[in-house]
Structures are given as structure tokens and as C-alpha cells.
Records
---
Amino acid sequence: MSEPSQSAPGRAALSVADPEIASLIAREERREADKLRLIASENYASRAVLEASASCLTNKYSEGYPHKRYYEGQQIIDEVEELAKSRLRALFGKPLADPAQLHVNVQPYSGSPANLAVYLAFVKPGETVMGLGLAAGGHLTHGHTVSITGKFFHSVPYGVRKEDHRIDLEEARRLAREHRPKLIWCGTTAYPRTLDFAAFRSIADEVGAILAADIAHISGLVAAGLHPSPVGVADVVTSTTHKTLRGPRGGMIFCKPEHASAIDRAVFPGLQGGPHNHTTAGIAVAAREASTPEFVAYARRIVDNAQTLAEALKERGFSLVTGGTDNHLLLVDMTPKNIGGKPYAQALDRAGIVCNYNAIPFDPRKPMDPSGIRMGTPCVSSRGMGKDEMKRLAGFMDEVAKSQAPEVCDRIAAEVREMCGHFPAPGLSV
Ligand SMILES: *Cc1c(COP(=O)(O)O)cnc(C)c1O
């Protein structure tokens, strides 16, 4: 038998088949290698995760769940999905007396569809739901007006306290008593502190609501035991798989056995067709990685780096929302530095430091031109950076806060590139 020809249909490498896209990917790889990436939701998936996610599993249709599929040929796919689920059960089921009781669904296409499945499972259009408001650090899918979740459901947002910008549990309890929501979300996308899941449980119990915890940002910290787990406390837990957990882009749902069939039916056939099997394989790989001591060390580095950066910034006169951080992210109020979040984020980007502009609680400025920036340490921690690099970063940030002149930013960008060169990023080939 001869080797299959490289000129047979579809067998050419990307660089040959589509040099334009290949070159764009190569440029993005260079960017990811050379920059200090501080977007709190981003990370570097490992090469193993990338390989699994880019595999031939993308070719297979498998509507349904393992051993209950609508098409034939599922011998391998069933094993892949079962493996992903059992690894996640071992990882996230730890708080339960019997981790086997944790129901796992790995089919949501991403974090937002995972959350939609929760609505579909438990709430009817027009019924009342509660979540942390967007401006206070909540997610769009927790009932914001521009989201389908705020349009199809009656959404009552709770917020943070004026005095310390911590979640206002008393307000949440008062609103819950008044509005009797069917579903209460706890979970955040721009909140630097740990969440008190037990307090939310007591609020939900008082009004007979389903409690859903969305750990999209923090699931890597939860898996490593560095943030309290809502498993065993909330009725349902949703998450992305690609933020601190460092898997492929995807979503997952954990729930108690009594909600298993409602959740599964909501995901398929309620919301989706065939699951993304290549993603499921990537999630399985990430779950295996997340069960190692190396992952726990990485997660610890995330929190240490965030706290070191927070202290170093405070020493330089920066103002942090809530005064610091317990997790992977920082919200910096740029008001004392006399620069808006957006022009500052743009100048930092030119300086090789990539973050996003972000509203701060009770922000007097407009959402498109807010007072703050949000930064997270998952990416730099995945590269193995530590205290020294965080202190240097704070110095760079201080310089850019003082001057956004192109020559200042370009000089810092060169220093950043040099520093990044000492910390090869997972998954990249440069
Ligand atoms: C990122 C995020 C989501 C949405 O995830 P996508 O994969 O972007 O759809 C949902 N909830 C929270 C709290 C998030 O931070």
C-alpha cells in the first residue's frame, strides 16, 4: 500500500490550503506570545487540549446522550463523553459525601447556552428571576435587559453595597422576599471577592427558589480548592470550560440527581442539536490536567499573582474596587489617576499589556467610556510568571497612567516582549 497522497482532497496542511488564514493564526500566536494578556476570562489552553479540540471528533454527529443516541456509530464518542463526565465528577464532586451523585452535562456550546438551559429547565417566560446586576459585576445572562434572559423573564437585579462594593446580601434577601423569584443566580464576571454560596442558599430556601451558581470565571480555582465550591449547596452549577479551568471553549452544568433529567432535556433537545464532540474531548483533557498537583500550583499562583499585583498597584496610588482581591481578578478605578478606563486600556494595549475597560460599581461615567479596567492573572500564571513579574507589571502600568505617549508605550512594549520571552506560553509553538 502506498502512502495516501498529500494532494488527495482535503489532505493539504493549512499553510498550503489556506495561507491567508494560516498567516492570521500565526500572527495571533505571535501576539499571544509577546503580550502580557490580562483579560480575566482568557487563558492559554495546553497543546494537548488544542489537539483534542482540533481532532476528527468534529466530524461526528451524536444527538442525545451516551448510549441513548439518535444516530449510529457512537462507539467511540460515547466513551469520550463518559470519560469527560467521570473526570469532572471526580474533580467537582469532592464536596459531596458521594461524588457519584453529581450529575454532569458537558454538552452546552458555551457558558451562555449553559445558563439558558437552566432557565429552560426551571422557569417559564414572564416568571421572575434574580441575578447580580451587570454594573455590579454580574453577567449578561443573569437577567440583563439587553439579553434574552432579561427580555423573556421578569428580571430583578440585586447589587453591591455603596460603602464597600461587596455583594449586598441583605438587599438580595429583601428583593427576594418582595418579588418571590423562581430562580436566583449567584455568580460574577467582574467581582474580585469570594462568594458566600450558603447565604444565597438560605435566601433561595426562604422563597422557594432554585439556586443556580455560575462559576464561569472561577471554576479552575474551585477545582483546585482555592475558592469555596457551590456543589452540594446550589441546585445547579454552570460554568464555562475555557476561563480559569483552561480547557477548550465550552460549557458544563452540574446538578443534583433530582434535576438531572430537566437539565439534560433542556440542553438537548430543548436548546441544541448535536454536541461538539471535539470540545467534549478537549474538556476531558482539561479535567485530567486539572486533577494534577501542577494545576493546583497554577491556581495558587493565579491568586498570589492577583494579590501581589493588587498590593503593588496600591503602593503606586491606584484605587482597587473593594480594596483588593480574593480571586483571579482586579477591578481598578482609574479616577484618582485622571484617566478614563478606555483610553487607559488602549494605551496599555499599545504597551503590550492587554486588559479591558470596565464599569466600576455606581460608575458615574457611561458604559462605553467607564471609569475602570478589569485585569486577571490566569494567563500570566499559566506562563509561570510570579511576584517579580507582577511588580514589574505594576511599574509599567504606573508609567502608562502617567504618560500615554506612543514612544513611552512602545518602549514598554519592547520590555514586555523581552520579559514574555522568558515564559513560554502553554499551547503555543512560538
Ligand atoms: C463568561 C461568562 C459566561 C458566558 O460564557 P460564554 O462562553 O462567553 O458564553 C457566563 N457567565 C459568567 C459569569 C461568565 O463570566
---
Amino acid sequence: MASHLALVGCCCCFFLVATAIALNINDYGAIPDGITDSTQALQKAWAEACAAESNAAVVVPAGQYVIGPVMFKGPCKSPVAIQLDGTLLAHPDLRLYRPNWIEFQYIDGLVLSGAGKVDGRGSAAWGSNKCRQNHISNCRTFPMNMVFSFVNDATISGISSIDSKYFHVLVFGSQNVTFDSVTVAAPGDSPNTDGIHVAVSQNVAITNSVIGTGDDCISIGDHTVNLTVSGIACGPGHGISVGSLGRNPGEQDVVGLAVRNCTFNGTMNGVRIKTWQNGPKDLAVRDLVFEDLTMNAVENPIVIDQKYCPSGTCPETLKPSRVRISNVTFHNIKGTSETMTAINLVCSQTFPCEAVQLSDIDLKYAGSDANATCINVKATVAGDVNPAAFCR
Ligand SMILES: *[C@@H]1O[C@H](CO)[C@@H](O)[C@H](O)[C@H]1NC(C)=O
Ligand SMILES: *[C@@H]1O[C@H](CO)[C@@H](O)[C@H](O)[C@H]1NC(C)=O
Ligand SMILES: *[C@@H]1O[C@H](CO)[C@@H](O)[C@H](O)[C@H]1NC(C)=O
Ligand SMILES: *[C@@H]1O[C@H](CO)[C@@H](O)[C@H](O)[C@H]1NC(C)=O
Ligand SMILES: *[C@@H]1O[C@H](CO)[C@@H](O)[C@H](O)[C@H]1NC(C)=O
Ligand SMILES: *[C@@H]1O[C@H](CO)[C@@H](O)[C@H](O)[C@H]1NC(C)=O
């Protein structure tokens, strides 16, 4: 199989020649005509790569491949690579999915790279999505483009996720996963198309990427530990959000998040933490840094919302959120807000936010002064913070 390397014509051939057996899916019967279902060929090439004694690479050359649900399942005998140069087109028959499209499970050592695309062809499904935006708990009915669960030591680079029917990417139960130079693209009005959702995972990094979609660019679920986000251009989309948290009894703490050097363009939110009221147990969200961020025409640039109520009809009698938010830094955040309240921090009456630091912030509203809300927050303010935040 190594003889096919000469045909790949990619920038990484030296790497492949040196370390890997290449398994071209066309040799397993895949047909890049944009019509023929090539799922079995891809699945067979994976099975062989995963069983190989030394590093193997599944190669998807340029071309359009129609692919139904695929499970890339480990454990594998050695680390495995997928060189994606072609486009994977989601099979149009929604009944095939159970429930997601491309899943990676129980893999230690994965490199997914190339200039290829994963195209969920979501426009056919979005119209029948009846879930309220952000109200995701009871409506996981549409396939996500890519799910990485129980995957360790993985690098995903170069590829694009296009028009997912639901979240583009989910990372769950995984450690040491890096997304670098990826692109996520879907229309700003596509429902529930979160870019990358990370939960129950540790040491995940998302760097130098462009994410424009219909929901959060990056969303962070419970039990996320040490997530690094940097060099992201977000927009359209709903911004980078922690939560919503504090509703389910099984949730565990979020500890360690750095969001640096990102640009938000025309998004609904910039950076946001949202928690429900009336929670079943105490939970912590701590050690968060948001810095070196540019907001261009962002509706709500800086938000902590501990009275999260997407339905808009929560009774006043709900008990305050039981999520303890502490050690959160907002530093060097500049640009423009589309609403007057550029900084909106509303914390829990029971557990006020602690050790919140605001420094070097300059956010304007329609060329004039914005304002700030800061309730139940123990904050320190340093350097110029505009709008001035009077926290109580
Ligand atoms: C993740 O990386 C850390 C630091 O390199 C290492 O100690 C840990 O064993 C890795 N975890 C897994 C599951 O590979
Ligand atoms: C946090 O994750 C990054 C990789 O994203 C890793 O380099 C770093 O060592 C981790 N930090 C800790 C304290 O584990
Ligand atoms: C900031 O992110 C951009 C990509 O959006 C990258 O090109 C640049 O090198 C990053 N700068 C720093 C200081 O990390
Ligand atoms: C920002 O968004 C606007 C409106 O969608 C678009 O025209 C513009 O090109 C975007 N700018 C950047 C830097 O992405
Ligand atoms: C606050 O968070 C930062 C990083 O997010 C961490 O380095 C620091 O140790 C934390 N401080 C405390 C007092 O826990
Ligand atoms: C900010 O301005 C809006 C619009 O004028 C106003 O409704 C709101 O009360 C102001 N908030 C603060 C904290 O001043």
C-alpha cells in the first residue's frame, strides 16, 4: 500500500513515507463522484489502519465522497492518522443516523489533518429543527458532524466542518486533544449549529481557527478542565460560552479556561458564562481568563448570567443559582457593543461571584458611552475600564 504515497501529492508525504502505511479509500471501493455511497470503503480502510501493527494513515484523496454514519472505533494497535483532502458529503437519508454522523471513539493517538471538508449538508434538515435555540436538552435529534468521545492525544488540523445539521464538533470524555487551523462554517441563522462543544474533557486546545455558525462558536460544558482557546475569529455566531450549567445533578466543576487573542465579529455574545437558577447541587466554575479580545459590533460583549432563562418566563420565586463562580479575569477587551450594556455581570445572590478582575477594557456603544451592570460580584477593577463597572 505504501506505493500509493507518490499519488497523494500532499505537503505531508515526507511524514507519511517516514512513519506510516497509507490506505487510500479508493482502493477499498470508494468512488469520488458525489453520488455513490462510499461508507463501507471508508470503514474498511479504517478497520485495516486500526489493526495495523505500526502507524497507518487512511487517505481520502481530493473528490466528493458521499458518506453515511461512520464509527471510527478503537482501541487501535498503534496511533492512526486520517489524511483528509477530499470532501465528505453527509448521506441525505436522515433515518440512517444513530444519532451522529462521523464518530471517533476509544482512540489513543489520532491525527486528522488535510485541507478536506466534512460537509453535513444541513440545510435540508434545519427547517425541521423544532428545538428552541439554546434549549438543547431534549432535542438531540439531528446528527452532529463529528464526535470525539474517549479519544486521547489527538490533533485535528486544517480541515473544515461545513453546514452541520446540529453541533459541528463534540469533544467528550477526552484528554489532550488539539484543534489547530480548522474552519467551521454554517449560516448565522442555522439552528443549534454550535461550532465546537467541549465537555467532561481535560487539556483540550482550540487554536488559530475560524468559526462562523448559527449558535455558539465554542461552548463549554461541565467537567471541562484546562481548556485553552486562542487565535479564534468568531462570527457569525453566539460567541464563546461556558454553560449553561447548574441544572443537572450529575454535573461536575469547570476548572481552568483561557480564552486569548480572539476576535468576535457581529456575534450575539462575546464571552459569556451562563447558569440556571434552582439548581440541584453546588457546583464550581473557577480559574477563567478572558484576555486580548476584540469585539466588533457584538450585541453583548461580556456576560455572566446566573439567571439564565432562555424561555424568558422564569418565575421570581426560583432559588438563586448554586454555581459558585470565582477567579475570573477579563483583561484587555476592546471594541464595540451593539447594545448599551457592554458589560453585564449578574451573579447569584446565594453565591456572589468572587475574585473577578476587570482591567483595560474599552467598549463603545454606537460611538458613545456604554454602561455596565454588576450585581452580586466581588470585583477588583484596575487600569482603565470603560464602561465603568460599579459592582455591588
Ligand atoms: C495527557 O497529557 C499529559 C501531559 O503530557 C499526560 O501526563 C497524560 O498522561 C495524558 N493523558 C492521556 C490520557 O494520554
Ligand atoms: C493544559 O493543557 C495544555 C494543552 O492544551 C497543556 O499544554 C498544559 O500542560 C495543560 N496544563 C496542565 C496544568 O495540565
Ligand atoms: C493571534 O491570533 C492570530 C490568528 O487569529 C494569529 O495569527 C496570531 O499569531 C495570534 N497572536 C498571538 C500573539 O498569539
Ligand atoms: C464581519 O461581519 C460582516 C457582516 O457579516 C462582514 O461583512 C465582514 O466581512 C466581517 N469581517 C470580518 C473581519 O470577518
Ligand atoms: C486563578 O486562575 C489562574 C488561571 O486561570 C490560576 O493561574 C491561579 O492560580 C488562580 N488563582 C487562585 C487563587 O486560585
Ligand atoms: C444602561 O442603559 C440602559 C439603556 O439606557 C438602561 O436601561 C440601563 O438601566 C442602564 N444600566 C445601568 C447599569 O446604568
